[in-house]
Amino acid sequence: MLNRKSYLKEKVERYFKGRGCRILLKKDITLPDKVYEMVDCIVQDGNNVVLVKILDELSSLSKFRDYILELSQIKCFADKMYVAVDEESEVFVDGVMLHKAGIGLLIVNVRGVQEKLPAKPTRFKIAYQTPDLKRFEQKIFELTTKIEKLFEQSKRFNERLTYIENKIRSLELRLRALEEKALTPTRVEEAVGKEAEATLPSFIRDNPWLEILARRGSE
């Protein structure tokens, strides 16, 4: 045997199906989790999405108003919204509040369902979309892989740069050593020549005739 809420829900769904509407399951539409928690029936009426909340435990006007305040927070995720109550609970319904909120009223009785107050279309509907987590995870993985490759390339580049710098330093040291070797004999010869010249007698040192005689001897 159906409980009270299941009984009212079955009546409401039959009512909408009789109008050519389709009852949507959670897999058929993407909405925030709080919407699924707060409503009892989601209907596709043409291009419109309609939310229905069944108030099966309505016992006071204040409780009804609390329900409407909560439902007003999720109304923006659908094109229309209804609350459904049985005939006995209609006395606790605040019609003025429903009218201001734009929420319709369905009365359920043994004969079926009656639309007592039409729902107003939502003026500013939010198109909710659940992020594709797998797609984002794939993008993050790809970016992470690229960063790791860039890091490895940068590491190899730095190693190569260090190798080149060490080679340049080595070549500079070798070049300096070769320059010093090339300059050393000349300096020695100059020093030896000066020392030999200093030991010659004074009449020979800086004597131009010695250079002339040396040329004739070579001729």
Task: Tell me what the structure shows.
The chain has 219 residues and is an alpha/beta fold. The chain folds into two domains: 4-117, Trna Endonuclease, Chain: A, domain 1 (3-Layer(aba) Sandwich); 133-213, no CATH class. It has six helices and six strands, in the order H-E-H-E-E-H-E-H-E-E-H-H. It has helices at residues 4-18, 33-38, 61-72, 95-101, 133-199, 208-218, and strands spanning 22-24, 41-45, 48-54, 80-86, 104-109, 112-117. Strands 1-2-3-4-5-6 form a six-stranded mixed β-sheet, sandwiched between helices. Strand 5 (104-109) and strand 6 (112-117) form a beta hairpin. The longest helix has 67 residues, at 133-199. It is rod-shaped, with a radius of gyration of 50 Å. The mean pLDDT is 81.
List the helices and strands and how they pair.
Layout: H1 4-18, E1 22-24, H2 33-38, E2 41-45, E3 48-54, H3 61-72, E4 80-86, H4 95-101, E5 104-109, E6 112-117, H5 133-199, H6 208-218
Brief synopsis:
The protein has helices spanning 4-18, 33-38, 61-72, 95-101, 133-199, 208-218; strands at residues 22-24, 41-45, 48-54, 80-86, 104-109, 112-117.
Terminal CA distance: 144 Å
Q: Output the CATH topology of the largest domain.
A: Trna Endonuclease, Chain: A, domain 1
Q: What is the level 1 CATH name of the largest domain?
A: Alpha Beta
Question: Biggest β-sheet: count, sense, barrel?
Answer: 6 strands, mixed
Total number of distinct structural domains: 2
The ordered H/E elements are HEHEEHEHEEHH
Radius of gyration: 50 Å
Give the helix tally: 6
Overall 3D geometry?
rod-shaped
Low-confidence stretches: none
Report the CATH architecture of the largest domain. Answer: 3-Layer(aba) Sandwich
The portion of residues forming beta strands comes to: 15-25%
- Determine the structural class based on helices, strands and strand pairing: alpha/beta
Question: For the largest beta sheet, what order do the strands appear in spatially?
Answer: 1-2-3-4-5-6
Number-wise, the strands total 6
Range of helix content: 40-55%
Output mean pLDDT.
81
